Each structure stands twice: as structure tokens, then as C-alpha cells.
Amino acid sequence: MSTVELSAADFEQTITGNEMVLVDFWASWCGPCRMFAPIFAAASDQHTDIVFAKVDTEAEQELAAAARITSIPTLMAFKGGSLVFSQPGALPAQALEQVIEAVRGLDLAKAREDARSA
User: Fold this and answer.
1) Which of 30, 64, 96, 103 is catalytic?
2) What is the CATH number of the domain that holds 24?
3) Do the Cβ atoms of 27 and 72 come closer than 8 Å?
4) What are the residue boundaries of the Thioredoxin domain, all occurrences included (predicted)?
5) Which site among 15, 37, 48, 50 is 20 to 30 Å from 104 CA-CA?
């Protein structure tokens, strides 16, 4: 699946309407963003069961502010509508794969239960 562009209008629906969503917050002037873009796109082709989305922080400044983006690129991972990972910086392909597998393997119900009992 190719990446999709997200805006404030469809962000919430995309996050809550899909089991797993990876979001790349980026800007066209950002060198590390341009380096990460083909890695993110290649992963989207390999993992067709995951929604890979991009948010242009220049065009969607209010959305970026609401997501508390302070550095780009920032990768966020959502599972079951919940934010489960957020990290600034361009990831190499192997690190992105590790994030994908960790999020895919995350038992969200157990994580929520563990958080309640902590």
C-alpha cells in the first residue's frame, strides 16, 4: 500500500478507523525527512496491512502543534486508536522494521491493563 497524506480533517478517522497506523510528520525543506521518505515508502509496500500516512507539517501546522511535534521527521505509531510509539529523527530501514514488528506484536489490552495496575 502506498502512503496516504493526512490532514486535520481526516487524521482522527484514519487513526481510529484502522488497526495500525504509522504517521511520518515531515516538511519538504527538511533533509532528514527527505532521507527517511524512501525508507518509509518501501516499508509501506512491504506491509500492506498497515496504513502508512504522512503529515506535511508546513501545510498542517495546527495538526503538528496538536500532536506536539517539535522536531521532524517524527514517526508516530498508533494501534487500536492509541498512540504507542513516538520518536523524532530519521530511522534506518532496519530500525523502522523493528518498530513495526514491536507495534504489530504489542498486546494492547495487556498494555492497558498493566498501565492501570502500575
Assistant:
1) 30
2) 3.40.30.10
3) yes
4) 1-105
5) 37
Q: What is the pLDDT of residue 32?
A: 96
- pLDDT value, residue 111: 76
Number of domains in the chain: 1
Tens digits of per-residue pLDDT, 60-79? Answer: 999 999 999 999 999 999 99
Exposure string over 13-33, b if 16+ CB within 10 A, otherwise e: ebbeebebbbbbbbbeebeeb
Considering the entire predicted model, what is its pTM? 0.92
Q: Is 32 a catalytic residue?
A: no
Neighbouring-strand partners of residue 86: 76
Q: Which residue has the cell 498494555?
A: 111
Binned average pLDDT, 10 residues per bin, the chain of 118 residues: 88 95 97 96 95 97 95 96 95 97 89 76
Based on the residue annotation, tell me whether 33 is a catalytic residue of this protein.
yes
